[in-house]
Design goal:
Elements lengths: L5 H14 L4 E7 L9 E7 L2 H17 L6 E3 L6 E5 L3 E7 H7 L1 H4 L4 E3 L4 H16 L1
Parallel strand pairs: 2-5
Antiparallel strand pairs: 1-2, 1-6, 3-4, 4-5
Length: 135
């Protein structure tokens, strides 16, 4: 039986919260074997500074519903790159062109990539199940 990692579950919940606001380029990087300051980075992009702020707001709101409050949030002033720090999980929300400039994935290239939960995949499975019930 596979043991679930609560911190990984939390990282996936952060990614789902970003996806609710149509974040794109979602990635989860596993840093556990590389560094001690965080277990996972969740990286997301928005198409405008407004969307970047909305994605960060969604992450904070959805995690607060689970009783998890960030220990720090930086970057709302310009909304080009907002960091939401939960300690073990750090969410980086970029305005698209800024993500390319900082290329954070290249900076942490040694980190293992974790499969990001897909809202579209869940929707497709639900539709498929509904279709089978009618038959």
């Amino acid at each position: 039986m596979r043991k679930t990692d609560p911190t990984l579950t939390f990282a996936k919940d952060v990614a789902r919260a970003a996806a609710k606001i149509k974040a794109h380029g979602l990635k989860i990087l596993d840093l556990r074997h590389l560094f001690t300051f965080a277990d996972y980075f969740v990286i997301a992009s928005g198409n405008s500074d407004r969307q970047v702020g909305a994605i960060a707001d969604s992450i904070i709101f959805e995690m607060k519903k689970q009783g998890k409050t960030p220990i720090g949030v930086e970057g709302y002033q310009h909304s080009q790159w907002i960091i939401v720090d939960f300690g073990d999980i750090v969410a980086h929300v970029f305005y698209g062109p800024m993500r390319e400039i900082y290329s954070i994935e290249k900076l942490w290239a040694d980190a293992k990539k974790v499969r990001v939960p897909s809202e579209k995949r869940k929707s497709a499975v639900k539709k498929e199940k509904k279709g089978k019930k009618k038959s």
